[in-house]
Amino acid sequence: MQKTLIKIGPRHLIGFCLALSAFELLTYMASDLIMPAMLSVTADLHADVRHVPHAFNLYLLGGVCLQWLMGPLSDHWGRRPMLLIGCAVFGIACAATFITHNIEVFNLLRLIQGAGLGFVVAVSYPALQEVFCEADAVRLMALLGNVALLSPLLGPLLGSLLLEWLSWRELFLALGFAAAAVWLGLYAFMPETVGVVRLDGQQQVQVRFSLRQTGQRYLALLGNRQFVWACLALGLMSLPLIAWIGVAPLLLIQLLGMTPLEYGLWQIPIFSAVIAGNLILDRLLITHSLPQVIRLGQWPFCLGLLGLIGCALLWKGLVPVVASLTFYAVGLGISNAALYRLALFCTDDSKGLVSAMVGMISIAVMGIGGSLVAVLGGGTHLGFFALLSAFGGLMCLPFLHGFLQDRHNDCISPQ
């Protein structure tokens, strides 16, 4: 690490990073831990199995619903109180799932739980960017990505094992208690970054909340072509992975007849590959700029998606599909954190509002895209999934190319 941009002690710095990592991990665990039990959920609540991918996509869309408000409010009230509120709401919604008895209430609670993901994106990520300088912030974003990836990597396995002793209701109750512990960690260690002068002399100024001005600022961001292209690219880049998480229980457990434990084991190569990509990113940052890192990551990214198309056209089985997804995941791990940083700082507006807009656009793209993959048959046939998710992922390329080209032209244009 080089240096922090807000002067806080090493103990609080470590505690802040650990609490932030734990909250992000929980917001993903609330989805992935329960995925092996989703068929049991639908059976227990007398619901159709189509709710399996829908519940996951509702969780993603829940992360979008309030981000437009979370970001600006954190610019006004501060990051710390907003994140504490978000953690409390998330924990209460998880605990409330314990007593639900119909699929409609279950889906509504999934939507509310997804708001926790929105607080991570719109509140905690800007705080992280404001505490650390650029290179360290990108490294920590990649590290947080690795922590978050422990959820889809270990969540299905852990969920399968816990279901031997606990019901799906008790799993949600346990998540609620874990959220309470994380809330205490955030209360003890999270610094306030709004209105604090940083070591480089800059300051994230407190922005008074106004609904009309907030709308005008969002419209201004939508008029920023570079920003919109980066957000669309972020969402489409992650779409194949999100689609896989949503339909994998149907493909592997219902269609191929696997046990929940076998389903969990098949997640390991894909999510391990994203972690490997993040580790490669850490090494590339020493000698490469962020745009160069993104371009290098596109090689395994595109090769993996082209492999998925080949699997679909040749009607290949599960092993080639997972191998192609693994290649793609390495490229995603290399590119994602770098592109997020460039998107966040391609505008001078306050980072709470900007991060909220990044999250709203990218998560909406992932949620809507994942729903389309499911509706068009991605959960009924492995070949359909491979073809649909590959085309969705490749759609990011024109947006990514346009963003990087515009950014390059801005850098070389005369002042």
What is the CATH homology-level superfamily?
Answer: MFS general substrate transporter like domains
Helix count, DSSP H or I runs of 4 or more residues = 17
The CATH architecture classification is Up-down Bundle
Shape: globular
Number of strands: 0
Low-confidence regions? 197-201
Distance between the termini: 33 Å
Q: Return the CATH topology.
A: Growth Hormone, Chain: A
In the CATH scheme, the class would be: Mainly Alpha
Q: Could you describe the largest sheet, including whether it forms a barrel? A: none
Helix content: over 70%
* Overall radius of gyration: 20 Å
Tally of separate domains? 1
Strand percent estimate? under 5%
Structural class: mainly alpha
Architecture overview:
- This protein has 415 residues and is an all-alpha fold.
- It has one domain (10-196, 214-410): Up-down Bundle (Growth Hormone, Chain: A), CATH 1.20.1250.20.
- 80% of the residues lie in helices and 0% in strands.
- It has helices at 10-32, 38-44, 51-65, 67-77, 79-96, 103-131, 134-162, 168-189, 211-222, 225-255, 260-265, 268-284, 290-314, 318-344, 351-378, 382-394, 396-412.
- It is globular.
- Mean pLDDT is 84; it is low at 197-201.
What's the short story on this structure?
By secondary structure, this protein is mainly α.
Structural topology:
Blueprint: H1 10-32, H2 38-44, H3 51-65, H4 67-77, H5 79-96, H6 103-131, H7 134-162, H8 168-189, H9 211-222, H10 225-255, H11 260-265, H12 268-284, H13 290-314, H14 318-344, H15 351-378, H16 382-394, H17 396-412
Helix pairs in contact: 1-6, 1-7, 1-8, 3-6, 3-10, 3-15, 4-5, 4-6, 4-15, 5-6, 5-8, 6-7, 6-15, 7-12, 7-14, 10-14, 10-15, 10-16, 10-17, 12-14, 13-14, 13-16, 15-16
